Amino acid sequence: MKDVAVSDVRTFALLGHTASGKTTLIDALLYKMGVNDRQGSVDTESSMADYTDEEKGRKITIHAKSFSGVYSAAGRKHGMVMCDTPGFMDFFGQVILATRAVESAVVLVDAHSGLQVGSHRSWKQTEAMKMPRAIVISGLDRENASFEKTLEAIQSSWGPQCLPVTIPQADLKGVSDILGTVAAADTADARTRLMEVAAETDDALIEKFLAGELLTAEELASGLKKAFLKCSFVPVFACAAPKNLGITELLNGITRIFPSPLDRPMVNAEGKPVAAGPEAPFVGYVWRTVNDPFMGQLTFVRVCGGTLRSDLEAVNVTREGKERMANALDVNGRKQAAVETATAGDIVALAKLKNTKLGDALCAAGTLVTFAPLAFPHPVIWQSVVGKTQADEDKIGTALARVTDDDPTLHVERNTDTHETILSGAGDVQLAVAVERMKKRSNVEVVLSTPKVPYKETVTARGEGHYKHKKQTGGRGQYGEVYLRIQPRPADDDEWFEDAVVGGVIPGNFMPAIQKGFVEGMTRGPLAGCPVTNVKISVYDGSYHDVDSSEIAFKIAGARALKDGMMKAKPVLLEPIMTVRITVPDQFMGDVNGDLSHRRGRVVGMESDDGHQVILAEAPQAEMFRYCAELRSMTGGKGSFDMSFARYDIVPSNIAQKIIAEAAKHKQEEEE
Ligand SMILES: Nc1nc2c(ncn2[C@@H]2O[C@H](COP(=O)(O)OP(=O)(O)O)[C@@H](O)[C@H]2O)c(=O)[nH]1
Ligand SMILES: [Mg+2]
Fold first, then answer.
1. Which residues partner with 288 through β-bridges?
2. Between 3.40.50.720, 2.40.30.10, 3.30.1330.60, 3.40.50.150, what CATH number should domain 283-363 receive?
3. Pairing of strands 602-609, 463-471
4. What is this structure's pTM?
């Protein structure tokens, strides 16, 4: 950042439950630093942070975004780089991305609502990243807000190392800044506790403290900074952003105790720290990409070390291409300004890179740093996606790629069994936003619907099949006759086909044609036209005709004999069964279990985890495509689940009958 030493840069992210006031706090900080000439507000759609249409419309943050400004305190200029993140569960991938771009985190807890699901989720994420974290108790001006009660809840859930560093005054006219030099009598206890934490980081300080001397403000800050970095101390700040309460004190606290990029260098894929100084070779990490009509194509790079200059040609170490760093931008919402140089802790946007994607590393030539891939939650919702019109369908591939490229929790894949394109993600709101963006960015309209279940067919008994294909039309006829046995394929048998013909009743040169007939027949089974799996077919008899037999005749005979055989070998439909892991607070156990049994689910185990119940179950995929939304409404957002494919299992016959009848109806419609 211009005229700011790397040691004076603070890069942090705001996390927390939806509506805990993260975006409002960002607006207050930007106003305080003079980045905005008035204080934006999400309520009047004037927020500098929630500026996209989809965010304004829904009144929630959807995309993690970075902002920066300069804050002068105690005669020093500090660079403040901060990321706003969504609290809404569907967009948690954005939180994960943001935590990779920063040194520390601020978890917001609303003083009226207290600890909520999103608060715990945020806290866990910072713990998983071993990231120094502070807490802001926000919304102190709200009705029934209580700083003390919220602090108590925080300490009992997250530990006694969460200690207040600013405390609201009774009249809410201001906050007492315990870190600052003025020691008010009513904050003496809190100050003593902070001194103890600070003293414990340093032998000289602990002696001083035990001798009953007071630490200076500098000693206090330097000790707390060490404890903060080790995560053994979590500062708690008091704020009411719309009232401008505690904002200056928060900024001062951040400058005093948050680490700079030099204090907590990023680690590369091998777990080694990346040199963060401005003289080190340039290393950048792509934590966000955007492709929208307003911004165009922008790649957001967090500088990890070295200096980014406009004449630098960086190497994309992940993809092995070169990229020019000209036209780097400092982006604050819709405001963009050119930047000439950027150093560790800075986040800049680069326009129109050639081939750089989310998660890539960009480095000075000769520096080969890469970063470990981030772990994202598995999808919990699946929808089939088709273009509204043929014109939309023709462009759907590009449109889908654009939205999925920018969001690692949104996936698109082709199901080759059902011939559907499946869009999957973290929740229905995320999918709805993706649909909106496809229309806006790519002018492609799509329709989402429940995917088809990739049923399969197999046999459960031995059966014999026979078909004689004989046609005499005009000149040369067609002739081929096949007898086969079909049975479930034993697990240890790799061969699905066996030629058991003796005495040359079917000449060997027709066998490949018969096999082809089977392969074709197996793509559309006799029950509901689903792929056939796990069968063993052996051809044991048949007949041929010297003149009329042909490959095509035997292929037809093979396919029809297969159908005949399958129908006599107790055919069944198979459906995918998923392993489901559901985490819910105790009080929802009954409802969730009851609902599972309505979904033909089977509970296979129970565990408890951190005050929650974990239900391990198996359930048919057919019942689970939208479970995410239903679990959310059943548990008020407090339940979560993870699901993966387990195996195929037989569809119960009453349900199979419906599927078969449906398929027959569909086939008839197709033929008409
Ligand atoms: N009274 C009061 N309202 C707040 C405060 N912080 C946020 N809000 C309101 O709470 C709502 C959600 O705020 P927002 O910043 O979007 O929350 P986010 O989801 O955490 O980003 C908005 O209506 C804000 O005006 C606060 O400190 N005091
Ligand atoms: Mg927000």
1. 300
2. 2.40.30.10
3. unpaired
4. 0.90
Q: What is the pLDDT averaged over residues 52-65?
A: 94
220-271 tens-digit pLDDT: 999 999 999 999 999 999 999 999 999 999 999 999 999 999 999 999 999 9
Distance CA 541, CA 613 (A): 59
Distance 286 CA to ligand 2 centre (A): 22
The per-residue DSSP string of 222-286 comes to HHHHHHHHTTS-EEEEE-BGGGTBSHHHHHHHHHHHSPPTTTS--B-TTSPBPP-STTSPPEEEE
Compute CA 144 distance to the chain's CA centroid, rounded to the nearest angstrom.
Answer: 35
- Ligand 2 mean position, distance from CA 252 (Å): 23
Ligand nearest to the CA of 86: 2
DSSP for 81-133, written as a single string: EEEE---SGGGHHHHHHHHHS-SEEEEEEETTT-S-HHHHHHHHHHHHTT--E
Helix (H) or strand (E) holding 594: helix 589-598
Give me ligand 2 centre to Cα 461, in Å: 59
Share of the chain above pLDDT 90, in %: 87
Residue 16 CA: nearest ligand 1 atom is 20
Determine the average pLDDT of the residues in 647-656: 96
Residues 297 and 73: beta-carbon distance below 8 Å: no
pLDDT at 274: 97
Q: Is 508 helix (H, G, I), strand (E, B) or coil?
A: helix
pLDDT band at 188 (very low <50, low <70, confident <90, very high): confident
Identity of the residue numbered 339: V
pLDDT recorded at residue 184? 60
Tell the CATH topology of 381-449: Alpha-Beta Plaits (3.30.70)
Ligand nearest to the CA of 22: 1
Residue 38 has pLDDT above 80, yes or no: yes
- Please give the structure tokens belonging to residue 463: 């059966």
pLDDT for 286 equals: 97
Q: Which atom of ligand 1 is nearest to the CA of 138?
A: 27
Report the atom number in ligand 1 closest to the C-alpha of 24.
15
Give pLDDT, residue 217.
87
**HSE-CB for 127 with a 13 A CA cutoff:** 8
Best substitution site from 24, 112, 239 to test ligand 1's pocket, by max atoms within 8 Å of Cβ? Answer: 24
- Neighbour-count burial of 66, counting CB atoms closer than 10 A to its CB (0-12 exposed, 13-18 middle, 19+ buried): buried
**Binding-site residues, ligand 1, Cβ < 6 A:** 16, 18-24, 42-43, 60-61, 87, 138-139, 141-142, 240-242
**Helix (H/G/I), strand (E/B), else coil: 376:** coil
- Give me the chain's average pLDDT, please: 94
**Residue 323 banded pLDDT, cuts 50, 70, 90:** very high
Instruction: Give the DSSP H/E element, type plus range, for residue 578.
Output: strand 571-585
pLDDT tens, 383-412? 999 999 999 999 999 999 999 999 999 999
Domain-by-domain residue ranges, the chain? 6-169+236-257, 283-363, 381-449, 457-569, 573-654
b/e per residue, 579-608, with b = 16+ CB within 10 A?
ebbbbbeeebeeebbebbeebbbebeeeee
CATH code for residues 573-654: 3.30.70.240
Q: Does pLDDT of 182 surpass 60?
A: no
Topology match between the domains 381-449 and 573-654: yes
CATH superfamily of 6-169+236-257: P-loop containing nucleotide triphosphate hydrolases (3.40.50.300)
CATH architecture of 457-569: 2-Layer Sandwich (3.30)
Q: What is the number of the ligand closest to the CA of 112? A: 1
